[in-house]
Specification:
With 698 residues, this protein is mostly beta strands. Helices cover 2% and strands 56% of the residues. It contains 2 helices and 42 strands. The strands form 9 sheets. It has a 21-stranded antiparallel sheet that branches. A 4-stranded antiparallel sheet has the order 3-6-9-10, with no helix packed on it. Strands 21, 22, 23 and 29 form a 4-stranded mixed sheet that branches. Strand 38 and strand 39 form a beta hairpin. It is globular. The two termini are 15 Å apart.
């Protein structure tokens, strides 16, 4: 729910005052996701090829058909809840007298958001030490990856002998469950170690809160020095304060003695999994009854020295999620600019535009958690304290634009400007965080190390573009644009992990590290005899080599009001973009831009009257890299995808209208692959979405 409104007062012919405000409140409750997962990563699982290997274009080999003996399988339920509020107040002053114009704005706004993801998994583990071909947990899986086609995908699981054919790892929830923080504080086992356990419950959640307050003040002025030239200038100041709080919850203290088998129910999604395109595939699985399960496990036993989350579960302080998401971040941005604006004629062609420069300073302060003493078990708040980080940056940002009216309907535009983008604070908290070590069934230890980089700086870009626009009739335009952009200091994750596997990691308590180029893993000398100790490091840096982007864009918006009735209410919008990005290779890898398709297209056909309207939309984009800045040999790619949408609106009155919209009408799926389309990473099926809106103005 939201509303906005404003008032305006005309003091005299020269001066106007205005006051506007808005408020919104969104509450999205009851969203669930259900996962059926099988993995053969543990010791004791056996993978048997069922077809001959096929060589891919990059020289790698893949087996498209396999059988898995003794896989670990589990059902996972994820519950999501989001609540967001925002409000703001804006005051403005407009003054115009003779050659002088002044505009001043003062605003204050705030927003807050609460997000919860709660996870509860019931797992059937593989049986460690099972010989090749042995029964293990009795589950057998068959897999055909489809080689890039979801319609050819097959995933079939045969349950253990003696169980119902409808059962996919139906868990036994009753009995004794044991908590061992040395293994994982978010899990309960039916044994004392993973090696002697057959089943596992994973219970955790991550409630998080964010609040932001923004205050701005702007004064812009313009003075006409001559009929065809004016001088503009101004000053701006913006203050932003962002407060982030978040916790992770653990499985300690759950009242598992209250669990009963009746809480396990057939999963609600199986009948429509992937819109029925996969058939049954033996994927009959189970899920947990939310209400009865969550009621039964509370009230929890409180862990000594720890606290409870807002939902009443023990907080797991000793993890990187808690350390990275509790911080405050503030920025003070001050800017001033001067700009010359002109309107002239050259060679009989009217020319207008502006040229100027903007100087901007950005001062930021971050208070983030750092550990002050070793944290054991679930940890406690006193294990951490806030550390202050500051940074100062300043930029000189020139800009210019030239607009030439070649004819009454043909316009040529040229522009050039420099800009910068500050790092996303949630992705670039400056402290380094060491996760809690975990062990697999073979006794190998893994720990995460997330490097903080207090020296991350905003990245800059310089853009140039030229466009030719033809306004062939009112409300219609055809344009062709060419653009160039050079990006420097782009912020992205370190992909070459050998760079963040330092020989000496004693400052993090991780001993001395060695990079194994064969396995592509970072190993510590802290490993127990006969085992491995893996350090999985991540971090972000500014990449110094520039990225050069160029491309062209064609746009068309055409009303067909010149056609005879009833076709005069038809119209169309079309857009096509072609983008090229290149840079010098770094460590044999090619930098690219995240989430940018080299080709994309959008087309809209609409029919609109004063009373009602309908429109259909088609969107297509070529394959792109979703998150990797440097493209290694095994880069995850999102396949080319298209989507059909439609909407219809009706004006009940001059102030009230209704609208019905449908998205992804043909139920297209999202497909990700590893470097080549024949090597699937995963399929994501969203189905259709419909929305209904009631709009009113007062």
């Amino acid at each position: 729910m939201g509303f906005s409104g404003g008032v305006e007062y005309e003091v005299n012919d020269d001066l106007k005052l205005g006051l506007n405000g808005f408020s919104s409140d969104k509450d999205l409750n009851g969203t669930h996701q259900y996962f059926a997962i099988a993995t053969a990563n543990g010791a004791g699982s056996t993978i048997l090829p069922q077809s001959a290997p096929v060589m891919l274009e990059d020289g790698r080999w893949i087996v498209h058909d396999i059988k898995v003996l003794n896989p670990a399988v589990w059902m996972s339920t994820r519950e999501y809840y989001t609540k967001a509020k925002a409000q703001g107040l804006f005051a403005n002053l407009d003054y115009a007298h003779g050659p002088l114009k002044v505009n001043a704005i003062a605003s204050k706004s705030s927003s807050s958001a609460y997000f919860l993801e709660q996870q509860y998994d019931f797992e059937t583990l593989n049986i460690a030490g099972t010989p090749l071909g042995g029964a293990g947990n009795g589950i057998v899986g068959e897999w055909h990856d489809g080689a890039g086609s979801i319609d050819d995908f097959l995933f079939h699981l045969t349950p253990p002998p003696g169980q119902s054919s409808l059962v996919f790892a139906q868990p036994e929830v009753s009995g004794t469950w044991n908590w061992n923080p040395a293994i994982d504080p978010t899990v309960l086992l039916d044994g004392t170690t993973i090696a002697n356990s057959h089943r596992r419950i994973r219970f955790t959640g991550s409630p998080s809160w964010g609040q932001q307050h923004v205050s701005t003040g702007k004064v812009h002025g313009e003075y006409a020095l001559a009929e065809q030239f004016s001088l503009a200038g101004g000053a701006e100041t913006t203050k932003v304060v962002y407060d982030s709080q978040a916790v992770r919850t653990s499985a300690y203290g759950l009242q598992t003695q209250n669990l009963t088998q009746s809480m396990i129910q057939p999963s609600p999604f199986m009948g429509s999994f992937f819109g029925g395109r996969l058939g049954s595939n033996g994927l009959s699985t189970w899920t947990i009854s939310d209400n009865s399960f969550l009621t039964a496990i509370q009230p929890v036993t409180v862990y000594p020295g720890a606290g409870l989350s807002d939902l009443g579960y023990n907080i797991y302080y000793n993890n990187d999620f808690y350390r990275r998401n509790n911080f405050t971040y503030g920025t003070n941005t001050n800017a001033g600019f001067v700009q010359g604006r002109y309107n002239a004629t050259a060679f009989g062609i009217p020319i207008r535009g502006n040229a100027g420069v903007r100087y901007e300073t950005l001062d930021s302060t971050t208070n983030a958690l750092t550990g002050v003493r070793p944290s054991t078990g679930l940890g406690k708040p006193s294990d951490f304290e806030y550390t202050k980080f500051t940074s100062k940056h300043h930029y000189t940002l020139p800009s210019a634009i030239i607009v030439a009216d070649l004819t009454d309907s043909l316009v040529l535009r040229l522009a050039g400007y420099k800009s910068y983008a500050a790092p996303l604070i949630r992705q670039n908290v400056p402290v380094s965080v060491i996760g809690v070590p975990t062990q697999d069934s073979s006794g190998n230890t893994s720990v995460t190390l997330t490097y903080g980089n207090p020296n991350i700086r905003p990245y800059t870009s310089f853009s140039k573009d030229v466009s030719l626009e033809w306004y062939n009739r009112p409300g219609s335009v055809l344009s062709l644009a060419y653009y160039q952009k050079t990006i420097k200091g782009f912020i992205a994750a370190v992909v070459d992990k050998s760079l963040i596997c330092p020989p000496d990691a004693t400052q993090y308590g991780l001993g001395h590290l060695t990079w194994d180029s064969t396995t592509g893993r970072c190993e510590s000398d802290l490993a127990a005899p006969g085992t491995k100790f893996y350090v999985n490091a991540t971090g972000n840096i500014n990449y110094d080599q520039p990225i050069h982007v160029h491309g062209y864009e064609f746009n068309m918006q055409q009303n067909f009001d010149f056609l005879p009735m009833p076709f005069n209410n038809l119209g169309t919008v079309f857009n096509y973009t072609r983008t090229y990005a290149k840079s010098d290779p770094l460590n044999g890898q090619t930098p690219t831009l995240n989430n940018v398709s080299p080709k994309s297209m959008n087309a809209v056909l609409y029919y609109e009257t004063k009373k009602w309207g309908v429109r259909g939309t088609y969107a297509w984009r070529a394959a792109y890299s979703p998150s990797t800045f440097l493209q290694p040999n095994a880069n995850i790619m999102v396949a080319a995808r298209h989507q059909w949408d439609a909407s219809a609106s009706y004006n009940l009155t001059d102030r009230v209208s209704i609208q019905l919209s449908g998205f992804n009408l043909t139920k297209e799926s999202l497909y990700r692959y590893t470097n080549q389309p024949e090597l699937p990473a995963y399929y994501d099926f969203e189905g259709r979405t419909f929305t209904f809106a009631l709009k009113a103005s007062f």
